[in-house]
Amino acid sequence: MLKLSKNFKDMKRAGVPHRYLEGKNIVLLFQKTSTRTRCAFEVGGMDLGMGVTYLDPGSSQMGKKESIEDTARVLGRMYDGIEFRGFAQDDVEELAAKSGVPVWNGLTTEWHPTQMLADILTVQENFNYDIKGKTLVFMGDCKNNVARSLMVVCSKLGMNFVACGPEECMPADDVIEACKPIAEANGCTITLTEDLKEACTGADVIYTDVWVSMGEPDEVWAERIAQLKPRIVLPPRSWLWPTRVPSSCTACRHSTTPTPPLVPRSPRSSASPRWRSRTPSSSPRSPRSSTRPRTACTPSRLSCTPRSSKSASSALARGASLRVPSGGPLVVFPPLGASHGTDCAPSMRDKPKVVQRRGDENHD
Q1: What is the pLDDT of residue 209?
Q2: Strands of the 190-193 sheet, one edge to the other
Q3: Ramachandran region, residue 204 (left: φ > 0; alpha: ψ -120 to 50; beta: rest)
């Protein structure tokens, strides 16, 4: 499935049509709202030629006037597939049992498998598709659906999984016991620890997620922040200094060629055709002209050296890349609100890598 995903991704980037499911229709059934999950399924379905219907929490009678079984039978007659994003794992399993069509789990309280496929593909891309034996560390609320799903997928793919968090935030015992034999069969390990240094030593990927999941009561915030704040995935400020990250996108590399002079606008004249530009001699160089990037890419490509904790903080806010001394992890902090997964992402060749997820409604 991951190889197929890579193939489709390469085809889209190359502009190769791949509408292999023309004439099929799917429905996205959401009990929990989302940004990335909805957009990913809609764009993916349309790229494959399918018709896509989105039903938000207020557009379906499922669980109110209609049972899960009734909804499954109705949608199964009209659609060729159902994507479900909601609360109970039992609901998605009943949809799959009663609808008669494929059902994709877009998120439940217990699991988030489609997110894992996307995350593991990202990890593969950063390690040249050789991830067996690598170590992935999850920090934070290790009992949530993302951490549980990561434990399962790492066990199946031969990646060592480390859960780092307070004891009360560790995965349930039944999940751990189910994953351990799978991990042993694939030559990898599962480790639970509360020690930050022990968890990060030898890590290839460090992963974190939102501390309070959608649907949890507001009262949980204060308790969870007190539990997890000491484990924020951030090296001490005294370790940090930004370095330039090599980019695979030529638009992100800084040009050393001076930018063209700024020519002041003037009213058009009928004697001067609009397509004819001024000659260099008629437009003296503006004092503003300087050597500067010729791209509108984010400032995260810039190199700078903070001389104090204040300047280090400003570098983080801009999205600077920060390297820990003595062969430590390359930590890339994208600017808040920046889009992920674009072609302009830095190519992180040094290991270990740090994949850090920014906040979403509920780990989309």
Answers
A1: 82
A2: 190-193, 160-164, 135-139, 205-208
A3: alpha
